[in-house]
Amino acid sequence: MSEEESFETEKYSFHFYKDEHFRRTNALKAHVATVEQRNMTEDDLKELKLFFGDIGKWENLSIAIRNLLKDLGIIIREGTEPMKEFGSEKYNIEWQMNHEFALITIRLAPEERRRRTEVDRQPVELTLKEITEQVKNVPKWQVLKRTLSDLKEQV
Questions:
Q1: Which residues contact 78 (CB under 8 A, 6 or more apart)?
Q2: Which residue ranges make up each domain of the chain?
């Protein structure tokens, strides 16, 4: 395993890596265990699937806010930044679970691979950074959703 990254959220410990078959499969792998090191349950798997459903939402919000501030003239950026779309729909995510951990396999969805190949005019490789940064931002998105929900209830 040449490339890997590990980190924890409040509830889960993530270990992302490229295995020896990455060049052939272009699939990233992740072992996810509970921080308390208890057995994984079906409820954990359901929660992780919801968690991964939120990847990319923080990034899309950040892009929208940056574009709004730019349009309002509050920030001015020199040059142009490529517009990248984020979200769980860009990936095919496969799930396996045993009592110790969940094994997740992540690949670009076929439509996304085609789109990126057309844009970049070269084969596309999924990177650890692309996935891990989105996963690390999911808790921020979830806190924002809870905060907005709480604010809505107070109004």
A1: none
A2: 4-154
Strands 102-108 and 12-17, sheet pairing: unpaired
In whole angstroms, give the CA distance from residue 39 to residue 115.
39
- 17, 4 contact by CB (below 8 A): yes
Q: What distance separates the 2 farthest-apart alpha carbons in the chain? A: 54
With beta carbons less than 8 A apart as the criterion, state whether 109 and 90 touch.
Answer: yes
Each residue's pLDDT tens digit, 35-84: 999 999 999 999 999 999 999 999 999 988 888 888 888 876 655 555 57
pTM of this structure: 0.85
Task: Decide: 62 and 69 in contact? Cβ < 8 Å.
Answer: no
